[in-house]
Amino acid sequence: MFVTASIVAMLFAASPPDTTSAAWRRASTPIPRAIVDTAHRRPRAVEISDAYYTRLEIHRWSAYTILPLFAVQYVTGRRLFNDPAGAPTWAKTGHRVGATLLAGAFTVSTVTGLWNLWDSRSVPENRTLRYVHALSMLAADAGFTYAGSTLATQAQNSLAKRREHRTVTLAAMGVTAASALMMKLWNAH
Predict the structure, then answer these.
(1) Would you say residue 149 has pLDDT above 70?
(2) How does DSSP classify residue 31?
(3) CA–CA separation, 2 vs 101, rounded Å?
């Protein structure tokens, strides 16, 4: 208040201002740059299409179908692991069918998830979480692909390969479950 009154008085004074006074020095002190630069930028508007939300719904339902398929794969796989030669037909067929359905569900989830990741690349909220989810799910995809394509054929004749198949598959299931839970808890899409 004193500084403002001093400036007004100096402007309307007939004589030149007294530049030796303390009021003049305070009034003429430049404003620090840090104060001037603190003006906040307006947030940039980000538009996400309706197709994003449709793909998100497909992605979520595909993820929900993966959990029961994991249970089927675990039950049939355990039966095949314990007795590969004498396992019942339902276990052999069920494991193949479950693996095929799981590959389909993962394909749908991967395509819709990566497409939505690309569409939401400019959305700053939960960006790190979305990228961690995408990378962990791609790692799980790689684990399932390795277990299904490489180890499945070798596992029929070798106990070591059956163990490796089981370990890789269970690890990929764990990564999938943890990543899905992370997204569900923080509701990041």
Answers:
(1) yes
(2) P
(3) 78
By CB atoms closer than 10 A (0-12, 13-18, 19+), residue 23 is middle
pLDDT in tens, 78-123: 999 998 888 999 999 999 999 999 999 999 999 999 999 999 999 9
Which one has a higher pLDDT value, 104 or 155? 104
pTM for this model (two decimals): 0.72
Which whole-number Å values give the CA distances from 180 to 113, 120, 188, in the listed order? 12, 18, 10
What three-state secondary structure class fits 43? coil
126 close to 186: Cβ distance less than 8 angstroms: yes
Tell me how far apart the alpha carbons of residues 75 and 144 are, in angstroms, rounded to a whole number. 17
Alpha helices by DSSP H, the chain: 2-12, 22-28, 33-36, 50-82, 89-119, 127-145, 152-154, 159-186
pLDDT one-digit tens code per residue, 168-185: 999 999 999 999 999 999
To the nearest 10 degrees (0 to 180), the angle between helices 89-119 and 50-82 is 150
* Residue 168: partners with Cβ closer than 8 Å, 6 or more residues away: 143, 146, 147, 151
CA dist., res. 169 & res. 15, Å (int)? 89
Q: Which two tokens stand for residue 162?
A: 């059956």
